Amino acid sequence: MTEKALRLGTRRSKLAMAQSGQVADAVRRLTGRPVELVEITTYGDTSREHLSQIGGTGVFVAALREVLVRGEVDFAVHSLKDLPTAQPDELVLAAVPTREDPRDVLIARDGLRFEELPEGARVGTGSPRRMAQLNAYARGRRMAIETVPIRGNIDTRIGFVRSGELDAVVLAAAGLHRVGRSDEVTQYLPFDTILPAPGQGALAIECAAGHEADGLQVAAVLAELDDPVTRAAVTAERALLAALEAGCSAPVGGLADLLADGQIVKEMRLRGVVGSPDGSALVQLSTTGPVPTTHDEAAALGTELAAEMLAKGAAGLMGERAL
User: Fold this and answer.
1) Using CA of residue 151, residue 154, residue 159, residue 161, what is the dihedral sign?
2) Residue 92 in contact with residue 208, Cβ under 8 Å?
3) Rounded Cα distance, 153 and 264, in Å
4) Distance CA 259, CA 233 (A)
5) How far apart are CA 310 and CA 143, in angstroms?
C-alpha cells in the first residue's frame, strides 16, 4: 500500500517552486514519505501594484497560512523575509534551514560593476531598502544614478536589462542560486555597500500547531531541518524589524553573523540600516553580544539595536511605520 503523500503548500513562481522542491526532497529523505507540491496563488502574486501600496507585509504568505489553518496542506515553505514578524498562535515556525548567500547582487549590461555604471544609469529594484542604500553609496562616490521601481519575477527583472530598458537590476543572490542563474551575476554587492533585508536568503517552513499527518507529528519531523545558527541570526534580524515597527517593504536592512577568532566563534554581530529613499540620510549601526542560545537572547540583540537606531532618528526615515 502506497503511503499518503505529505502536502507542501507553495507559491507558484519559479523561485518558490525551486526552493519548495529542495525542501520537499529533504522531507522525503527524512520521512520516506512522498511529498506533493500544492500550488497556491497569493495576493502578492496577482497584484500589479507596488508592494508598499498593497500592504507589503504578509501579501505573499496570507493565502498559504489560510490553507495551513484549514488543514488543506501539511506544511508550507516561505521566503523568510516575506513573513510578518508576529507569529500567529495557531501556526509554528517549525524549521529555518541553513541559510543561502544573503547578499544582494548586480546584474548589469556589458558585465559592468556598480562603480562602472555610466552617468545617469537606470538601476531597477522593487525594494525601498535597496534604493536607499544604492543611492547613498552612489552619493558617496559622486555618481549620478536613477533608481527605478520595478516588480516581477526573476525573468522579468533581468529582461529589463537584456532589452536595454534598464542599465542594471539588483536582486537577491539566494534566489538566483536556487534557480540556477548565478552565472548572470556581474557583481556580488558587499555588506558595507548594501545590507540585505532581515531574513534574506533564509527559508521558513511552517505548519499548524499540533498538526498530524497519518500519525506523523509534522512539526517534530520538520524540526530536523532546522539550523540553530541561521535561526538565531534571523531571530535577531526580525526582532530589529519588529522593534522598528517596520514591515518587509520598509527601507530597513539587517544582518546577523558570527564573529570568530580563528576556529573559535566569539560573538554574534548584528548590523542594521534605515535610510531615506534618495539616500540623503542613513542611520547605520551595529552591536555585538554573546552567541545566543535561546530565542529571547537572539531577540534581545535586535531589540537593543533598534532602540539605538530609533534614538539616532531612524523612525523619521521610514515614512509611515507599520503597526
Assistant:
1) positive
2) yes
3) 40
4) 12
5) 29
Q: Which CATH architecture has domain 104-188?
A: 3-Layer(aba) Sandwich (3.40)
Instruction: Identify whether the C-beta of residue 272 lies closer than 8 Å to the C-beta of residue 252.
Output: yes
6-97+202-226 shares its CATH topology with 104-188: yes
Question: How does pLDDT run along the chain (323 residues), one tens digit per residue?
Answer: 467 899 999 998 899 999 999 999 999 999 999 999 999 986 554 445 444 443 445 667 889 999 999 999 999 999 999 899 888 999 999 999 999 999 999 999 999 999 999 999 999 998 999 999 999 999 999 999 999 999 888 999 999 999 999 999 999 999 999 999 999 999 999 999 999 999 999 999 999 998 988 888 999 999 999 999 999 999 999 999 999 986 656 789 999 999 887 778 889 999 999 999 889 999 999 999 999 999 999 999 999 999 999 999 988 877 544 43
Per the rule left: phi > 0, alpha: psi between -120 and 50, beta: everything else, 32 is left
- Going from N- to C-terminal start, the domains of the chain cover 6-97+202-226, 104-188, 231-313
Hey, what CATH topology would domain 6-97+202-226 get?
D-Maltodextrin-Binding Protein; domain 2 (3.40.190)
Cell numbers 523561485 correspond to what residue? 15
Phi and psi (nearest 5°) for 78?
A: -125, 155
Can you tell me the distance from the alpha carbon of 179 to that of 175, in angstroms, rounded to the nearest whole number?
6
Q: What pTM was computed for the model?
A: 0.89
Q: Contact 237/102 with Cβ under 8 angstroms?
A: no
**From CA 178, how far away is CA 180, in angstroms rounded?**
6
Pairing label, strands 104-108, 168-172: antiparallel
183 is a catalytic site residue: no
107-137: burial string, b at 16+ Cβ within 10 Å, e else = bbeeebebeebeeebbbbbbbbbbbbbbbbb
Q: Do 9 and 67 contact (CB within 8 A), yes or no?
A: yes
The dihedral region occupied by 183, where left means phi > 0, alpha psi between -120 and 50, and beta the remainder, is alpha
Q: Which of 25, 45, 74, 82 is catalytic?
A: 82
